Amino acid sequence: MSNSRSLTSRKSPLKWAGGKKRIVEEIKANLPSSGKKRLIEPFVGGGSVFLNLDFDEYLLIDTNVDLINLFNIIKNDSERFIKDAESFFVGNHNESGRYYDIRRQFNESTDPYERSLFFVYLNRHGYNGLCRYNQKGGFNVPFGRYKHPYFPRNEFLEFSRVAQKAIFQCGDFEEAFSQASKNDVVYCDPPYSPINRTSNFTAYAGNSFTDDDQRRLVSCAELAKQKGVSTLISNHYTDFTKVLYKDADRISLLSVQRNISCKGSVRGKSKEVMALYSG
Fold first, then answer.
1. Long-range contacts of range 139-146, CB-CB < 8 Å, 24 or more positions apart?
2. What's the fold here for domain 68-154?
3. For the structural domain made of 21-65+165-277, what CATH number should be given?
4. Which helix (H) or strand (E) holds 161?
């Protein structure tokens, strides 16, 4: 990875709860990238990490098919998509009735391009940047009531430029690890283990990320280590994750300002951990 220039000014075109824009420098400091050509992210999310880390190639995976379809469209057809998406940010689109009408159309649509247009609209007009689906796969985030939702034209253009070096795939994180080799380094930003075990909110892409999934991720990191591939994992620092990462090669702790409940008005510092499995 090249360190010849600062890249941390790049912003994701999406609002993304739990995005890593604020701690990219800490991730960079903890990620052993020397001599590595490709960054693998099994949980790409809004994309703030890969956008701000300069590698020759990226393999970016997520379980959310709408997210991956959108990213591939931005990569391959950005000019048309930006023009079409911007039309949803003018006129009477920033109204509650219109929002719920588009949300209904999104849930009924099966066309990837149309769903991607709706996805960007819902992302910027919905509440608190959430991406949440019910058990039937229906997007169910309420209207956000923002005065002037921002259309990220420049962010889309920059994303498209960087994405030319990326492969976007939809799948489980094990699919990402199965493709890893010694020229790669892996950064994992899974749905976080809950701070409050009685109010777990990890619903994403129509499913949930369980304690067993957290353990399965560590097993993948340990297997990758045996192949000479280093993996860095972020998570909340809790009693559960203290035990979960007890065999990591290095533990780094940091305090991060973020929403720590589903209520956007409840904000505070939460302690996070970065666990490195050094290959």
1. 139/103, 139/106, 139/107, 141/103, 143/96, 143/99, 143/100, 145/96, 146/94
2. Adenine-specific Methyltransferase; domain 2 (1.10.1020)
3. 3.40.50.150
4. helix 153-163
Q: Give the C-alpha separation, 277 to 279, whole Å.
A: 6
Q: What are the percentages of helix, strand and coil residues in the chain, rounded to 5?
A: 40, 20, 40
- Rounded to the nearest angstrom, the gap between the alpha carbon of residue 116 and the centroid of all alpha carbons in its chain is 16
Question: What CA–CA distance (Å, rounded) separates 128 from 142?
Answer: 9
DSSP class of residue 264 equals T
Distance CA 270, CA 228 (A): 32
pLDDT in tens, 143-184: 999 999 999 999 999 999 999 999 999 999 999 999 999 999
Domain ranges for the chain: 21-65+165-277, 68-154
Q: What strands lie across the sheet with 230-236, from one edge to the other?
A: 166-170, 57-62, 38-41, 184-188, 230-236, 267-277, 250-259
Percent of the chain with pLDDT over 70: 89
Do 21-65+165-277 and 68-154 share a fold?
Answer: no
| Alpha-carbon gap, residue 153 to 13, rounded angstroms | 8
HSE, side-chain direction, 13 A CA sphere, residue 235: 29
Q: How far apart are CA 179 and CA 184, in angstroms?
A: 9
Of 133, 125, 152, 140, nearest in space to 204 by CA: 133
Question: Closest Cα to residue 26, out of 187, 194, 238, 228?
Answer: 187
